[in-house]
Please model this.
Amino acid sequence: MMLNCKETTRFISEGLDHRLSLWQRINLRLHVMMCGACSAYKRQIEGLHRLFGLHRQRTEGIMSDMSSEAHRLSPAKRDQIKHLLESQSPGHSH
Model:
């Protein structure tokens, strides 16, 4: 039995999260080859999936970099900033 468009879009989405059965993959491929709308949907949803995956990788990389010791202020720099802020405060006399 041939898949309809509703079943096909569901299998396309499910296939992004886990491996489909052989029967599902074959029927999905046959339907997508014959249906321009489902073929376009498959390309679009796979593109979005890749895009969000890249975004997640970049975000995780940035967060990892921010938490590394290389991006922390040294004690000397902290003191320098502290003294600069204290000297700029309204109650501080020069």
User: Anything to note?
Assistant: The chain has a mean pLDDT of 84. Residues 5-88 form one domain. The longest helix spans residues 36-67. The two ends are 87 Å apart (CA to CA).
